[in-house]
Amino acid sequence: MAILNWVFPETHPDWMAVPGPNCWPGLEAAEALIRGLKTRADWILLVVHWSDEHFPQPRPEDRLLARELARMGADFIVGHHPHVVRGMEMIATCPVFYSIGNYFFSNVRDREGRWIARQAPRNREGLGVQISFRRGERPEYNLLSFRQNADQTREDRSARAVRRMERLSLQLSRLPVSEYQEWYSARRAHFDRWGYRLHFRLWRLEKHDLARFSRRLLSPSRR
What are the sequence ranges of the domains in the chain? Predict the structure, then answer.
């Protein structure tokens, strides 16, 4: 089995080092590498650090790129970086998981005690993809749910990550890429206006900030 781990430039954690180690080489170089590995490996697993953060659906360009990678010969694609669980789809025989969320991520304050990173409930969900390989067969997978509480991550018996992934996968199976752009743009506009505040920004506010926000929301001038 060959494992390729690529970091896309816009998501690189060490942005001063771009292109840096394991940076996405572009389609032409990626295809040459995958096809070369195909002569020496039974399976090729791609682990990709890609896309944008928090929105629960992959970008249209993510779906197009996944199709290119599957065409090149990838057998399995696992994405991360968005910090939330996203849906998955089968492209020919290649399973593509667009984001497995967070397994563990620390809350961070600055020196004045203000939040730099504070995890909302959706950021605490992690999807585990357990892959099994048998010579001469396609890889099979089993899904696990994890959830971070305080400073520990445990298996989530409520299977929230798996259930969320299944719900989010429905639209990917219903909409071909050619029709996905319009649907995505409408949902993304709504998320940018309302969804992000409700699911992520409000969670990061202190109690006194939430009280002030509520007073503004309920003031007569806003009714």
Answer: 2-183
Q: Which two tokens stand for residue 157?
A: 């018996």
8 A C-beta contact, residue 115 and residue 195 = no
pLDDT in tens, 119-156: 788 899 999 999 999 988 899 999 999 999 878 999 99
The answer to whether residues 9 and 24 touch, using CB atoms and an 8 Å cutoff, is yes
Query: Whole-prediction pTM value?
Result: 0.85
* E strand intervals along the chain: 2-7, 44-49, 76-80, 88-91, 94-97, 108-109, 115-117, 125-132, 140-149, 152-155
Q: Please tell me the chain's helix, strand, coil percentages from 3-state DSSP, rounded to the nearest 5.
A: 40, 25, 35
**β-strand pairing of 140-149 with 125-132:** antiparallel
CA-wise closest residue to 146 among 88, 106, 103 = 103
